[in-house]
Fold this sequence. Notes:
Layout lengths: L2 E8 L2 E15 L4 E7 L3 E6 L2 E5 L3 H15 L5 E6 L4 H6 L7 E5 L3 H10 L1 H4 L7 E4 L3 H5 L6 E7 L13 H10 E10 L6 H17 L2 E8 L7 E8 L10 H5 L10 H6 L5 H8 L4
Parallel strand pairs: 6-7, 6-9, 7-8, 9-10
Antiparallel strand pairs: 1-2, 2-3, 3-4, 4-5, 10-12, 11-12
Amino acid sequence: MELWYTENQTPNVKFSMKVKSHLYSAKSPFQQIDVIDTYEFGRVLVIDGWTMLTEKDEFIYHEMITHVALATNPEIKKVLVIGAGDGGTVRELTRYNSIEKIDMVEIDETVVMVAKEFLPFTANKLDDPRVNLYFEDGIKFVEGKNNEYDLVIVDSTDPIGPGEGLFTTEFYKNCSNALTENGILVNQGESPYYQKDAREMKRAFSKLKKIFPICEAYQYHMPTYPSGHWIFGFASKKLHPIKDFNGENWEKLGLKTKYYNKRIHVGAFALPNYVIEQLNEQEY
């Protein structure tokens, strides 16, 4: 008998993986969490029926959510990560010796516990001495913070359930206040392809544009996410991701990456016309 995991990416599109075994299943106070082992993608973290990461392609997401900002501003020392319970974003951040502090705020402690047990490929740096774990609401955590972080990464789930409040104007304003003068915010910006995802992408980007003088979107290819075409937002008070980017300086760090490089950095901001048109539309 064959066992398959199927994600309903839209009402008309399904994505399936052949499963070796179901390693974990439990409902936390916030969400349903499952870990499966698949033939093609290795171990897969599923939350509320949605694929969060797979062992095979997680490096794409985690490299692109971190290295773009750090290559733009090599002086980043203090970082706030909101969400990211699997640990992959923290793993990439700890590769920079220049970073002194990483505060990671995850509302669901169960996700971190599960990641440490079943997803060591992403969770293996959560015990780094520079990392401070806070199991609380990231929305409340950032309230009242002023001029504290050089980089804020909003590594959120989709804007439903626990992740919904991480897409509001008030939250983005609080993140702006928490940033230093040269601070950068990077957020998980959804996808331009399917209508539901595109609507959330436009809403989030429209809010960021009203708060930050510099606001750009950049793309990455994620094979296991709906459509494969996904977006991060880059927002800053002063630094521009292309004009202030020095690829040669980043290369001197000698970091070995599987997806990100200095050419990808620049090319990721060259968006297709249909995406540009969507992002230029007013929020509705």
